[in-house]
Fold this sequence. Notes:
Structural class: alpha/beta
Amino acid sequence: MTPDEYFSDYDRNFWHTDNTGCWKLERQQHFVESGNASWEAFDAGDWPKALRLMEERRHALADYEKRIAGHDFEVRRIRIVEEPISPYLIWELNSLHVRYQVGGKIRVVDGGIVADLERDEVLPELFILGKKVIYQVLYAESGELEGAIRSDAPDLIHHWTATAGRLYDKGEDLGGYFARKVAGRQPPSAW
Length: 191
């Protein structure tokens, strides 16, 4: 699927997720978030503006989390982090922290924990919508979104839902991780 096809298909399915909920698995340590004003400020080296723009989205994120709760499902995110923490992840973890503070279910998993799962290849970037559909989101080496592969195969959805659940259980709530490893840090100015 092209990026537009992926977004359209995702939008059609997301709000119809069953009560088993959604899982988002993020593995890459760098993405390009074109169109995200905070990311663009970060990319331009304006850290104060990047943080201010994150805060400006707080109310909208809180409304989004309430809307999800009103649909009787949860979105659980697993963010795999390798150390030293990349400049991108310093930005993303700050952004995710705002979402976490308004009710987002986010856990951080150390990259070493997934080593056994990555003997043959790095874990994919996934978004699982209940028992209905799974997307493997595809990115260029640069971190730019290229599209997605969609499947509704029950065995595949079950496998990755179980894997995501195990990783989530091993993860640390973002709040504690953020306080220990990220709070007060900013990306190097010349990253």
